[in-house]
């Protein structure tokens, strides 16, 4: 494989990460996973249909499979690894487990990023707004019911803590 | 996987204990098979046929092998052992060499330094084909004048059923024809594996996402020409399965590439390749004729079931038997004349998918029940209750139903669940058919209600020697469990911990790595692991408890039969002794292995008679749909369901199975179909193969019917498959109810409704 010896860097979860010896055609998903070891973003469709690879770029939720890695320089990239430390899961992550929203778990990191993004921009979404916000993240195991419960739990917990 | 959990509450059986791998999965730190990497690793990729049927004239790999970064290119001649594999009959080549028999069949595999190098190498392989006319229809495959497309012939299996009085008739005859499309399991975690060759080249280790480690091990070893113990498998995290990981996909190819290059090799399918790389749900055509009394009681069923198994056998013969032996549905029926056929074509191979033949049968028998209801002037509920099967009834195979069979109760409890609020001006437009497209206008929408009820066999049938093994080790108050049971998302890892906590009174339960270092657990399929591996873990824990009681009794001069576990203590029922399990097991190490087997089953005779199944579970579904009759769009508003679960061991995990299965059945009802035209797959992507999204999810109302089954080791029946079986006919019946259109096939397409 002919790769470029040029090094570029990506700002991921607040830290500069150097990408070496890469091929220019690599997607952000590939670089995150295979070159930088951020395995939280998952690949499942390569077409931006399933949302498993969701990350935040400048606080927008995007499918990292559709972004050329080299075009993401000078942006702020947040992956699921950047949302919490291993010891301190976020309220969203905890709610997913408590409400049974995790089965095989392959779609879960992407959904966690999507829910994080939704509740940052709209802290009290209606039921249909939740459904629409998550309709870009396919889950094949749960049928979504437990995922909705998890989101509702977080919304009510946050509302309680504010009041 | 090695997971350690300390529970604060007592997460015993019956409690909604949480997943031990849950937080890791939310944080992205849980390792799926695609997340494994190794130093010095190569990538593997597969060359696949663009034609459904062709003779291979020549394969030229000379240009591919010259590409910088390409380490090897393998063909059929490089397979050292058996040239073919297969779950029931070994009829599929590891690599095609003479003929390709379906679009996407494997021809060669490459290993290279980068996935992109692999793609270029595949492009550089030149294959000359003589393109042949594909055999693509079931009727052509059944025609004895059609030339065979495989040395084993064009019919995988024919099964005749003759039960009771073939000449029996009723007052009325109700006929119908039904067609089922090809559904994909569409698990999210694509096929992936990483193979590590042994340094002496005489063995290999494979990390793989599969449903059945030991069956893979056997088939891989045969193709590699190695003894089984030289092929060691470890379960990589599995991103869903639903039947699609029961057959070999990339396992043999990955091992071959690693052994040839003497380097670790990772293979990972793309979504497009995944559509070609695993089997699908059988499409089929079912004709049914019910003879009924004027009251609506079933007197006799007649008909045929024809399933398209595609190019290779996979589990077609077993799927067919499941289909024909469930064609009566959960209803009493004394007489039957029925024939089932599973045929070989040049369409994509079909095999296991959640529901396994019963999905197809149920779509047909439930369509018939509604027709019978109409013919005799009864409601769908009344006619189903009138015919509802009970424990002790005899199936059309002559097998008595010895399982608990609360069919009528499932129907009644479902019927008692509330209906959704009627459509009104205040209904959110995004909740209407068409969803976020906001295409629907309220005056075009009609609401309908439909019913589906089903019976599903649990575990393997037809005399298969089925068992599951587990080991429990107790030391210093900590239980460690070892089993080869594939955790595919269903939650066996939670259940295993709950069993150990319940039986042994421990709180800390460590799960050892899931691999082939212990005996087989059988496949995670056929709704069997709670019963089989659950039974094995339960048995191993009970043996450990016996040894522990013996030790405590010996120490305190008691009879071990006096001792019981209460919470986390060992208690003397005849005296004052109370000692915690952790204290009692201090300094001890008790290890016990248990093999769980279910009762024997029989093969069917030439008339389809025999006790071929182990046990059964039942479920009822009621669907409410809104249909835009102008655009042909459907919104499933609500599914109500009551399911015979035996005993609910973990209500939260159970609800997850119910809701997840319903979504898959909804997919088959209104959107999911692999479209195959003349052997060519037209939609192998998530852009064109539509899956239910959050906006498609209906409200689900669920009642578990708990009547513990004395045959089941934990009283619990398998719950994985029933949720997705009768929900499909219920939804289609609701669309018929809303529109008045006599829909014969599933999935229902917009043009079926409005054109």
Automatic annotation (TrEMBL), chain A:
Q: Which UniProt keywords apply?
A: 2Fe-2S, Iron, Iron-sulfur, Metal-binding, Oxidoreductase
Can you give the residue ranges of the 2Fe-2S ferredoxin-type domain? 6-83
Record-level Gene Ontology MF annotations: 2 iron, 2 sulfur cluster binding; metal ion binding; oxidoreductase activity
Q: Does the keyword Iron apply?
A: yes
Q: Which SUPFAM superfamilies has this protein been placed in?
A: 2Fe-2S ferredoxin-like, CO dehydrogenase ISP C-domain like
Magnesium is among the record's keywords: no
Q: Which Gene3D superfamilies match?
A: 3.10.20.30, [2Fe-2S]-binding domain (1.10.150.120)
Which Pfam family name is an example for this entry? Fer2_2
Name the UniProt record assigns to this protein: Unannotated protein
From TrEMBL, chain B:
Q: Which GO terms describe its molecular function?
A: iron ion binding; oxidoreductase activity
- SMART domains (UniProt xref): Ald_Xan_dh_C
- Pfam families to which the protein is assigned, alphabetical: Ald_Xan_dh_C, MoCoBD_1, MoCoBD_2
Q: Which residues form the Aldehyde oxidase/xanthine dehydrogenase a/b hammerhead domain?
A: 27-133
Kindly give the PANTHER family that the UniProt entry links to this protein: XANTHINE DEHYDROGENASE (PTHR11908), XANTHINE DEHYDROGENASE SUBUNIT D-RELATED (PTHR11908:SF157)
Q: Which NCBIfam families match?
A: pucD (TIGR03196)
> Can you name this protein?
Unannotated protein
**Organism this protein belongs to:** freshwater metagenome
């Amino acid at each position: 494989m002919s790769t470029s010896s040029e090094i570029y860097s990506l700002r991921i979860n607040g830290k500069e990460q150097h990408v070496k010896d890469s091929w220019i055609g690599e997607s952000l998903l590939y670089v995150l996973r295979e070159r930088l070891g951020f395995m939280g973003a998952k690949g499942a469709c390569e077409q931006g249909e399933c949302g498993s690879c969701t990350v935040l770029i400048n606080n927008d939720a995007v499918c990292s499979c559709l972004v050329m890695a080299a075009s993401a320089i000078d942006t702020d990239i947040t992956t699921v690894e950047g949302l919490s430390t291993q010891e301190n899961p976020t309220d969203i992550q905890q709610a997913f487990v408590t409400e049974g929203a995790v089965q095989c778990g392959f779609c879960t990191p992407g959904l966690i990023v999507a829910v994080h993004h939704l509740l940052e921009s709209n802290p009290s979404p209606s039921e249909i707004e939740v459904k629409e916000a998550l309709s870009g993240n396919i889950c094949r195991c749960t049928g979504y019911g437990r995922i909705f419960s998890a989101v509702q739990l977080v919304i009510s917990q946050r509302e309680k803590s504010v009041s | 996987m090695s997971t350690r959990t300390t529970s604060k509450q007592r997460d015993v059986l019956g409690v909604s204990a949480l997943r031990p791998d849950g937080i890791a999965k939310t944080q992205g730190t849980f390792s799926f098979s695609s997340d494994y990497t190794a130093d010095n690793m190569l990538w593997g990729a597969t060359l696949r046929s663009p034609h459904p049927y062709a003779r291979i004239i020549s394969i030229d790999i000379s240009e591919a092998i010259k590409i910088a970064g390409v380490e090897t290119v393998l063909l059929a001649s490089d397979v050292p052992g058996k040239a073919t594999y297969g779950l029931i009959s070994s009829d599929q080549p590891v690599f095609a060499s003479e003929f390709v028999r379906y679009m996407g069949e494997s021809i060669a595999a490459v290993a290279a330094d980068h996935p992109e190098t692999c793609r270029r190498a595949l492009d550089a392989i030149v294959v000359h084909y003589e393109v042949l006319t594909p055999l693509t229809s079931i009727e052509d495959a059944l025609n004895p004048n059609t030339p065979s497309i495989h040395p084993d012939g064009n019919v995988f299996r024919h099964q005749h059923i003759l039960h009771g009085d073939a000449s029996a008739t009723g007052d009325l005859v109700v006929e119908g024809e039904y067609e089922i499309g090809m559904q994909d399991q569409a698990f999210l975690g694509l096929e992936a594996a990483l193979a590590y060759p042994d340094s002496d080249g005489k063995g290999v280790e494979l990390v793989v996402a599969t449903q059945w480690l030991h069956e893979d091990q056997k088939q891989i070893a045969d193709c590699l020409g190695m003894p089984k113990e030289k092929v060691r498998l470890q379960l990589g995290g599995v991103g869903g399965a639903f039947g699609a990981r029961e057959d070999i996909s990339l396992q043999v190819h990955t091992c071959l590439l690693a052994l040839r290059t003497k380097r670790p090799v990772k293979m990972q399918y793309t979504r497009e390749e995944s559509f070609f790389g695993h089997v699908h749900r059988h499409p089929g055509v079912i004709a049914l004729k019910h003879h009924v009394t004027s009251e609506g009681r079933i007197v006799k069923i007649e008909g045929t079931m024809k399933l398209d198994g595609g190019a290779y056998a996979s589990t077609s013969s077993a799927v067919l038997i499941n289909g024909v032996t469930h064609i009566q549905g959960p209803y009493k029926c004394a007489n039957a004349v029925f024939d089932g056929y599973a045929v070989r074509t040049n369409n994509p191979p079909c095999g296991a998918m959640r529901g396994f033949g019963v999905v197809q049968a149920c779509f047909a028998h439930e369509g018939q029940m509604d027709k019978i209801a109409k013919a005799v002037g009864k409601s769908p509920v009344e006619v189903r209750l009138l015919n509802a099967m009970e424990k002790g009834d005899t199936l059309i195979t002559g097998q008595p139903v010895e399982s608990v069979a609360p069919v009528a109760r499932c129907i009644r409890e479902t019927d008692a669940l509330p209906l959704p609020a009627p459509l009104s001006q205040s209904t959110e437009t995004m909740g209407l058919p068409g969803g976020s497209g906001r295409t629907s206008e309220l005056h075009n929408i009609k609401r309908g209600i439909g019913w589906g009820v089903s019976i599903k066999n649990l575990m393997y049938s037809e005399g298969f020697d089925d068992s599951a093994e587990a080991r429990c080790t107790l030391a210093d108050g900590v239980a460690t469990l070892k089993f080869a049971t594939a955790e595919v998302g269903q939650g066996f890892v939670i259940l295993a911990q709950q069993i150990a906590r319940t039986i042994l009174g421990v709180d800390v339960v460590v799960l050892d790595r899931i691999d082939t270092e212990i005996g087989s657990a059988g496949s995670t399929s056929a709704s069997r692991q709670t019963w089989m591996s659950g039974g094995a873990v339960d048995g191993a824990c009970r043996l450990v408890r016996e040894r522990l009681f013996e030790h405590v009794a010996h120490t305190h001069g008691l009879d071990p039969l006096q001792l019981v576990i209460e919470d986390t203590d060992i208690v003397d029922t005849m005296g004052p002794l109370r000692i915690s399990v952790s204290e009692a097991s201090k300094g001890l190490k008790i290890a016990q292995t248990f093999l769980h087997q279910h009762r024997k089953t029989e093969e069917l005779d030439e008339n389809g008679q025999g006790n071929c199944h182990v046990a059964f579970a039942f479920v009822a579904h009621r669907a409410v749909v809104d249909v835009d009759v102008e655009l042909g769009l459907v919104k499933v508003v609500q599914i109500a369901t009551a399911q015979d679960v035996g005993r609910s061991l973990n209500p939260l995990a159970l609800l997850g199975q119910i809701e997840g299965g319903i979504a898959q059945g909804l997919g088959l009802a209104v959107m999911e179909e692999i479209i195959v035209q003349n052997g060519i797959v037209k939609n192998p992507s998530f852009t064109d193969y539509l899956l239910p999204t959050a906006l498609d999810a209906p409200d689900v109302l669920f009642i578990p019917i708990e009547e513990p089954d004395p045959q089941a080791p934990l009283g619990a029946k398998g719950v994985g498959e029933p949720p997705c079986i009768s929900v499909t006919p219920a939804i289609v019946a609701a669309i018929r109810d809303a529109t008045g259109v006599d829909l014969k096939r599933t999935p229902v397409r917009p043009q079926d409704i409005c054109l």
